[in-house]
Amino acid sequence: MREIYLDNSATTRTAEPVARAVYDMLVNCYGNPSSLHRKGLEAENQIEAARRSLAQLLDCDPGELTFTSGGTEANNLALLGVAEARARRGKRIVTTAFEHSSVDAAANRLEQLGWEVIRIKPDHLGHIDPGEVVAAVDGQTVLVSCMCVNNEVGAILPIEQIVRGVRRKNPGTLIHCDCVQALGKLPLSMRRLDLDLATVSAHKIYGPKGCGALYVRRGIRLVPRQLGGSQEKKLRPGTEAAASIVGFGVAARLAKEHLREDAARIADLNQELRCRLLSMSKVVVNSPADALPAVLNISVPGYRSETMMHFLEERGISVSSGSACSKGAKSHVLSAMGLDPALIDSALRISFGRYNTKEDVEDFVLALQEGICSLAHC
To answer: Distance between CA atoms of 188 and 172, rounded to whole angstroms?
Structure first.
């Protein structure tokens, strides 16, 4: 049975050049990067080369990147680190109601500690009004945190408009952006976007799991979430996961090289699938028309997500019902959009990647049609 992997927003298949680089680090360049001998220096040099590679993809200074264990740690470091560092300036944070769980949970923790958290709701298409975000900012707001691309419906947030409005309203408010789903799919320039902090992750761009990074604009102070040695400018102490970091660097280089090619091909796949699905009377497309093409969220009312997912899996097709971090729980993203419970309970997320083909789209549509017919009699 042919494997059809359409869950690239959850994670991606590790690219072969990345896997080879990770293997080489594990077996040949295994020194501790903090050690002063040759093996340590070799590992340190490889890490710094990876940092430069990621900086080129993000258009920032390499010294502004701190490697972490992934997007969740980077998001927590951004929110909680800023909050502790700037608590004397105010205790208000503005975010959206459909952020990734790592941002939402960090915001919940701050609420428990007495912070005021304002969550801007998207409309039924997943669009965020930048004016609402800016209006929620006041003199006590120390941080605005908005994702670049929503991980469940692919909605692209108006980050540039938000940044401009916040800068005018309160120049002292810092701006953080979770760019995990945008990295490698949209051109990202930290200089152009004028962000203060940004989160990225390796395994969304064909790199290894367990490695991410936080961009921190030079001059901004965060309070570390863990204490220890001097690694990563003391912001993220502990022996670096050198092999994973080097793999991230290779993945970043490949993402920069393939960005336009990948984006064009994935847009074609998305358009093909949308056209096919819109002709099916039982299918509802939840993703807005201007969403990132890599993500397409649909519903088949009357067919529970888990039931349809298992049907598709039996035919070698992997999709999800939402964020992998939710482990099947009801989507807070679709709930925030105000969608009908019948749409939420039957939602499926199809997410394309570098290795998908039009044959994958054709096989998915045929399997979905078969599932609609077969499961109706269950």
So the answer is: 23
pLDDT in tens, the chain (378 residues): 799 999 999 999 999 999 999 999 999 998 888 888 998 889 899 999 999 999 999 999 999 999 999 999 999 999 999 999 999 999 999 999 999 999 999 999 999 999 999 999 999 999 999 999 999 999 999 999 999 999 999 999 999 999 999 999 999 999 999 999 999 999 999 999 999 999 999 999 999 999 999 999 999 999 988 888 888 788 888 889 999 999 999 999 999 999 999 999 999 999 999 999 999 989 999 999 999 999 999 999 999 999 999 999 999 999 998 655 545 567 999 999 999 999 999 999 999 999 999 999 999 999 999 999 988 754
Sheet arrangement for strand 116-120: 65-68, 212-216, 197-201, 174-178, 141-145, 92-96, 116-120
Amino acid of residue 278: L
Residue listed under structure tokens 């799919």? 185
- Length of the chain counted residue by residue: 378
Distance CA 219, CA 191 (A): 14
* Catalytic residue numbers, as ranges: 325
